[in-house]
Fold this sequence. Notes:
The chain has 4 domains: about 5-220 and about 230-240, 2-Layer Sandwich (Heat Shock Protein 90); about 245-385, Ribosomal Protein S5, domain 2, CATH 3.30.230.80; about 410-510, Rossmann fold (3-Layer(aba) Sandwich), CATH 3.40.50.11260; about 510-639, Up-down Bundle (Four Helix Bundle (Hemerythrin (Met), subunit A)), CATH 1.20.120.790. Helix 1 (about 15-25) packs across helix 5. Helices cover about 35% and strands about 20% of the residues. It is of the alpha+beta class. It is elongated, with a radius of gyration of 33 Å.
Amino acid sequence: MSDTTHKETRKFETEVTQLLDLMIHSLYSNKEIFLRELISNASDAADKLRFEATTDDALFEGDSDLHVYLEVNEEDRTVIIRDNGIGMNHDEVVANIGTIASSGTRQFFDKLTGDNKNDAHLIGQFGVGFYSSFLVADRVTLETRRAGLEVEHGVRWESAGDGNYTIETIERAARGTQITLHLREDAEEFLEGYRLRGIVNKYADHIPFPIRMTSSTPAETGEEGEEAATVETIETVNQASALWTRPKSELSDEDYINFYKHVAHDFEGPMEWIHQRLEGKFEYTLMLYLPKRAPFDLWQAESKHGVKLYVRRVFIMEATDDLLPKYLRFMRGVMDTNDLPLNVSREILQHSPAMEAMKKGATKRILAMFEELAKKEGDEYNEFWTQFGNCIKEGVIEDFSNKERIAGLLRFASAGGDAATDDQTVSLADYISRMPEGQDKVYYITAESLAAAKHSPHLEIFRKKGVEVLMLHDRIDEWLVSHLFEFDGKSLQSITKGELDLSNIGDKDEAEEAAHAEQDKAAEPVAQKLAAALESKVKQVRITHRLTESPACLISDDMDMSTNMERILKNAGQDTPDLKPVLEINPEHALVKRIAELDDDSAIATWAEILFDQAVLAEGALPKDPAGFVRRMNSLLAG
């Protein structure tokens, strides 16, 4: 053994200890998944070795028969899972077993509710992997050596799941990893070979490597009085063929669901899936899944989970933008082709016609799946939108060639019309189909929250006329509408930008138009007073009839940044141009009429500031000088 051999005791990260406790309590009724998780990890290790060996055959160390082996020892009460895959070195064991390397860990724990059933789904999304061992074992021993390292670089890791673990350097002749589970008393069922074979058939029949077990069978009967002997044979207990290469006619829904759970490390089944073999200039197979829930790390830039690329059934890489557009990063599954070299690199992928064809073809079929989901009755699409809607919005921005299709998948809340709803269920096609005669634009409002959008003074005239307005209140929506200018021939128009003309909608009321003209003329002087008082804050003060209840509102010019976008950027610490809004005033409002009667410049300035700050508050923002606003209000209220 090496002179550098040493054994040390370490503490788990706090998050690992928390996860172990949560997992044991939340998943206790589904203990058998430990075998699925450990076999899945062993399969991944074999995949990684097979890929690395495409450029370094010596990593096989003379043994290219990649497999997983299960062994039961009733006397020792142990179950052993062994693979001859890539293995791990000392640092990799510490990184993969002793810690949870994810910046999304804190958000994951924040989502937990204490409800075992609900938390079980979240834990499944997080991926418990190796830690599922402690569902059935009160002590776990892991021995491993990375392929290509000398025998003295083996590593032994051991823990009772009590917050500590030991790690030491050992001599290990075999490459790969062996996990020994010392079973709890309440886990005796897993000492039965037939029980383990049943779990393999249920969860891991599709693993593309042989899963082998020792099977004992009675020998031929011996002499009378002699104890019957047994013969032990090693048998393969799974089909050991890549599921995606098999015809769809041979596969059941259960086959597809179990493969999804393997490839996605999810405890729930998928919402939908695609299995297609495409032939033409390039040939490839897709087996792609839509999860029911957003992965916990969906918004983590360093997330490495996603679709896996295989070349001639050899695993190459996972979760890169070369396989699918970034906005589809929540998809899971595999893509397999014969039209790429086994030693493919990122550079080759980025310039490969075959890869471009696969990416384009997969994207179109995924979008078609979403479209079919949207046509179904029930709440399934609404749940899809709740989980992944903001990712789909990214697609409008990123994927120009599919922009119109993706826009058709968008869903919004709406106000103003008869079909107004707080739920994000309104499509652009729905909206257009309900437009009254004379309306030629899709109207929308962006705001920092649904409440701010619903209570915006900008909606007043639309409610009066019964015109529907889409309410966009997610942060990404400002970027969305900066890339989506029209849909189905109808332009999109923000109701908070530019001048508004709804005169073509509904019946023409000449008497009302004449009254508005008189009001405009009478309000010109007060508009001039306000413009002078607010010269440093507004670009212009103009009279409007878009308001029916509020005294004033803020408008951005057509080509200017919206006030909501400006607020988002400032909150993110970004510099913004010094743009002044337009203040529009309601000539019939009592507050505006009161200001019109004032002659004192100081009083006009005070009321003008209050009017402006009220308009800012109505936008869902705070005045630049909240204390000044309160002071002015108090002084006026006091008399």
